Here is the input.
Amino acid sequence: MLDNESDYLENVNMCPECGSSKLVKDYQRAEIICFNCGLVIRSKIIDSGPEWRAFDSEQAEKRVRAGSPSTLTIHDKGLTTMIDWRNKDSFGNDINPKKRAQISRLRKWQRRIRISDATERNLALALSEMDRISSHLGLSRNVREAAAMLYRQAVNQRLIRGRSIEGVTAAAIYAACRKCKVPRTLDEIASVSQVSKKDIGRGYRFIARELDIKVPPTNPIDYIPRFSSELKLNGNVQTRAIEILKRAINIGLTSGRGPTGVAAAALYIASVLENERRTQRDIAEVTHVTEVTVRNRYKELIELLKLDIT
DNA sequence: AAGACGAAAGTGGTTGA
DNA sequence: TCAACAACTTTCGTCTT
Here is the structure.
């Protein structure tokens, strides 16, 4: 077993063909090659270099082979050159004082260039704001990336001119949420940003038009998973609610109505049908509509879908 | 007493002239 | 730009469990 295993390890130090000890490990091609005679001694070797994923700061120091993946949520996509602040060369030796002065000048300019003009500063600010809002709303990675992408497009097309950074960031997030089918209401976004609901809506319509984003009207079904988990409803209720909504959509019962209201009513009916009853008030609370709306929608639903609540 | 129901008046946003 | 309009909310009183 040990013999077999050594096949996979890289503990060869001598070429079996010519006896030379000058071996080259080529991680790109995953081979160990004799520098002298060119024999491929091992192939498919495993790159044992550190990985970029790190779970604490200690690991972060070790796992530096590849750098972070490129991301849109950092203003330069994480692709900048960083000059280490330690005065060591690549072997860990001290750098002599003359070189040190040179390098510190390099560092200075690198910093200045990284966030150079107004656009860059704007982006950096906006992206950190978006990050703040996203974490408040508990948005997933891909929504954040999507929002960042929208914002970049908006910047490229000079759409920010005359508009507040906060307004556009909030609008970008709203749009990204809808695009990714994890809708947040305007109210929710307004409550964690300094922008009013009205302005976010206006900003959203604006960038949606200018960037030519086609987002279908919000589907009430998209709200079901989030609302029902907030109400601690089980999966059967969710399925039931989605069923109801599909039928409702088919007869056009949802058009013109606020999607949250319809979702709320469907959830209410489903919760009753599945014997997991929640009060109208509870549902109204998490869906941010009033009990009255829940009632109105739910009356329409049972009437037109011929549902019977026992 | 809590929840469900419904009427009536008020609010903010869309639409069409 | 303004008025009409539908959806939604607020408020409050009544009915049901």
